[in-house]
Write a structure and sequence with these properties.
Blueprint (H helix, E strand, L loop, with lengths): L30 H11 L2 H13 L9 E9 L4 H17 L9 E6 L5 E9 L10 H12 L10 E5 L14
Antiparallel strand pairs: 1-3, 1-4, 2-3
Helix pairs in contact: 3-4
């Protein structure tokens, strides 16, 4: 009969190579095994805290509204065409829910006696709203860019993301 450490009733003097296996007859129930588990259990509150903190964050940070400012340096004589394209593009943005309906501002200004430029201000529905634009949006963007030219060290169409938008405070009117 070969000795079996689990069924043996007396302790051996010889050292066993696997010290985590309890001796038969001892009541330790593998205390060394549980010491490893206890070592890791002390980190459980910290792991739980990290888990619940991560769950408290917004699920999609790309859905936060993103203010946008676009400057178009239009070619002389192409002002009306650009206005029509920008109007069409705005309707596509609304249909595809890429931008919020308000605020939307389009300003036409004089750069010098020959050149004009447009400033368009709107709010995207999120920072990823135009990451993968539809074919309609890409076509309208290309048509608008074709009507613009770079000048004075500026690009033909300049996009500025995440600009601070400040709303003026109106004075209260007394009745």
């Amino acid at each position: 009969m070969t000795p079996n450490n689990l069924l043996q009733r007396t302790r051996h003097v010889a050292v066993v190579s696997n010290q985590c296996v309890p001796w038969a007859g001892s009541l330790s129930l593998g205390r060394r095994e549980h010491s490893h588990v206890m070592k890791y259990l002390r980190f459980l509150p910290a792991i739980a805290l990290l888990f619940f903190t991560g769950c408290a964050m917004p699920l999609d940070p790309g859905r936060a509204p993103t203010p946008m400012l676009v400057i178009y340096h239009v070619k002389p004589g192409a002002e009306r065409q650009l206005e029509a394209i920008l109007k069409d593009r705005w309707h596509v943005y609304q249909q595809e829910r890429l931008a919020r309906s308000e605020p939307h501002v389009l300003v036409r200004a004089h750069e010098d006696e020959l050149h004009e430029y447009y400033i368009e201000i709107y709010t995207l529905t999120g920072c990823f709203a135009t990451e993968y634009p539809s074919v309609r949006v890409q076509t309208l963007e290309a048509e608008a860019a074709a009507l613009c030219e770079s000048r004075g060290g500026h690009l033909a169409v300049e996009y500025q993301f995440d600009i601070p938008m400040l709303a003026p405070k109106l004075p209260k009117v007394k009745d």
